[in-house]
Every structure is written in C-alpha cells, then in structure tokens.
Design brief:
Radius of gyration: 26 Å
Shape: rod-shaped
Order of helices and strands: EEHHHH
Oligomer: single chain
Number of helices: 4
Helix content: 40-55%
C-alpha cells in the first residue's frame, strides 16, 4: 500500500487514481517500469555508443558522453558508454516502447560497425597503395636520371 500524493489516503500501489480524491497516482501502467527504472531488454553492451561515442551521445541526448572528446578521458568514457550507454539513452529520452528503443539502438550499432569496417578497409588499402606509389615515383625518377 502507498499514500496518495494529493490527499494522503492509503491506496493500493497499482491504483491508477486515488479512490478518495480522484487524483492520478504515480503508479505506472501494468508492464511499464516505474520512473527511473530501466526495463528488461534495455541493459547490455552498445556497439553504437562505444564506436560512435560522441555522435551517439548527441543523437541520444546523453550529454555526459561528450567527455569522449577530452584527451585521455575519451577512451575510458567510450568503454563506459559501451557498458552503460543503453541505460543512459533510455533514461534521457521518452521512448514509445522497448521495441522502438532496441530498433533505434540496433541501427546505431549497425552503422557504427559499417563505418569502422569501411575505415579499416580504407586504411589497409592506403597502407598498401602509398608505399607502392612512392616506389613507383622513385623508379620513375631513376629512369629520368639515366
């Protein structure tokens, strides 16, 4: 049993309104967590928050994630966002449902992995192409000198 915030009468904790005064209670609807609680299915690792940390932070209104822009603190904050980011994103915005939240976070994770893989492939190609081009330039310069 809990007490009504308006009149102080003792009411059942799942009552949507106070039977004495008719004031709405702070009790959540059935199946929804109370204010400040994180529902099942929200907690977990977030690749989007870890890999796209400061961009993800802005997109999900998790402003503490902008600490990723601070040198030396950034790497630690990226790891913290990976572990706690989903919970913070849930608390920072009003979501229609856990399904909508998971759908949006899955898109963040998918794009984070795609962007990192593309950057990796470009880096490998550059590591191969730049030395090959430098050798080509050296051979061309040697051929001109003869």
């Amino acid at each position: 049993m809990v007490f009504c915030r308006a009149c102080g009468a003792q009411i059942h904790e799942t009552a949507p309104i106070c039977p004495q005064c008719g004031a709405p209670t702070a009790a959540p609807a059935v199946g929804f967590p109370r204010e400040g609680e994180v529902p099942a299915g929200v907690k977990g690792w977030s690749w989007g928050a870890f890999l796209l940390n400061w961009i993800w932070s802005i997109g999900n209104s998790v402003w503490i994630g902008l600490l990723c822009l601070v040198p030396y603190v950034g790497f630690i904050m990226a790891i913290v966002l990976g572990f706690k980011g989903r919970e913070w994103a849930w608390k920072a915005r009003k979501w229609e449902s856990v399904e909508e939240f998971n759908r949006v976070q899955k898109k963040w994770s998918k794009w984070a992995v795609i962007i990192i893989l593309v950057a990796f492939v470009i880096g490998v190609l550059a590591a191969i192409a730049i030395p090959a081009y430098q050798q080509y330039q050296m051979r061309a310069a040697m051929a001109q000198m003869r």
